[in-house]
User: What shape does this take?
Amino acid sequence: MKIAIIMDPKDNVATLLSDVDKDDVVQARLGEKSTEEQVNEPIRFGHKFALSRIGKGENVVKYGEIIGRATQDIDKGYHVHVHNVESLRGRGDQR
Amino acid sequence: MEFSGYQRNDGRVGIRNLVLVCAVVECVEGIARKIAERVKSAVAVTHHYSCLHLGNEQVVNTMVGIAENPNSAGVVLIGMGCEALRPEIFSERLSGSGKPLEILSCREMGGTARTIDKGIEIARNMEDDNRALEREPFPLDRLVVAVKCGGSDATSGLAANASLGVAVDHLIRAGSPVVFTEPIEAIGGEEELYRRAANEEVRTRIERVISNEENYWKMSGARMEFMCKGNIDGGLSSIEEKALGALHKTGSAPIVGVLENSARKCERPTVSGIYFQDGTHLEAQAVTNLAAAGAQILVFTTGVGAALEGLITPTIRVCGNPTSFAQMKADMDINAGTIIEGRESIEEVGSRIFREIIEVASGKKTKLEGLVPGVFDIYRPDPRLDSLAGISRRL
Assistant: This one.
């Protein structure tokens, strides 16, 4: 089974260790524990998918820390990346 | 645990015997490069902040830090003869190091061709003298290790940086000072750095470095791209995510100091532990700053397979992405992609990196050493911008 890594129990995203297709079920590992998660669109190696629904404006959490904010609703199992996440830091455009 | 290196007159320990051919002003850069081409152990140290720049103190501090680096076993300073940054400004600061030092003025020599010939002769003599130097064993507290990442992707936090973090923990236990920099890549990772600050003063200085950096890039007219194409293609979505992955390379030990790197001074580590150096994320300039702070060796982690070698710091490249490693195997010193493939643990790769650091420090050549001249460039924040942004580099 394809593998994804969850870095911290607080995370709402997992990082894929291989390319996945729509409807693939992956083993999402958090330390010694793991769960099975369905991915709902093709996503590449190294990219992230949502472990639960992340509403527009909600924080995206990886490594147990906030890595950005959702710019649109992201359903469980969908790709989480620059098309639907914005950084909160060093934003000269939002002074 | 020991490594073998060369004892210098100032008590520091080199891991290579390089002759530094330093152009103190840009109009003699070509002369320095020609000399370095003709002498095997010579490297050209050049910069492009000429006579009419304001506030060149940081340039001098960095050049002096580089010339004093223990990998330098001889310095040839070359000037045109009419520059503002005269060779004597450097030689006065360098005299305490006890390194072989010569000054050449192009005007006094009677032009470029004669300066090149004389420079080659001097550098070759220094090289000959250096052949008599012998390695001796030293404890690891004499080895300053720099860590830097570049060409990060989603594997960086999982493999290359994670395993380097393990190696750094080994180094700290063995007594080495370890230095990291890139303030911009701490943006979003502050909480971890604050937690690891050895005391309140260190915490305050970390805070100052990061807020300076953020202010610098938030100025009106700045259009900063924190992320390169490779970062985004590789799965990193924000500077925060990149920063958190990047910090893994510093392991888990307390941060014992913040190194000021400014027009006022270029600080060096004084005790064992992790140090955060103020400076830049720009690759060549960051590597130069780390060497100016006295690092003898650099460990460079990558996901996309970036092949970077420092000019005076032998560089161990660690690649955490199996696909990149397969492509760039010829240039990568350590394969950390085995972690992603499930063939090795983070701890196992970390131990390999630690052993490689000792071997390279003791003379083993890295994959790129001697193949191409390494990168070198001087970072100098513009004092006018600092002033406009209300930034004080005094930490």
Summary: The first strand of chain A starts at residue 3 and ends at 5. Chain A has a mean pLDDT of 94. Chain A touches chain B through 29 residues (CB under 8 Å). Residues 3-94 of chain A form a domain with the Archaeosine Trna-guanine Transglycosylase; Chain: A, domain 4 fold (CATH 2.30.130.110).
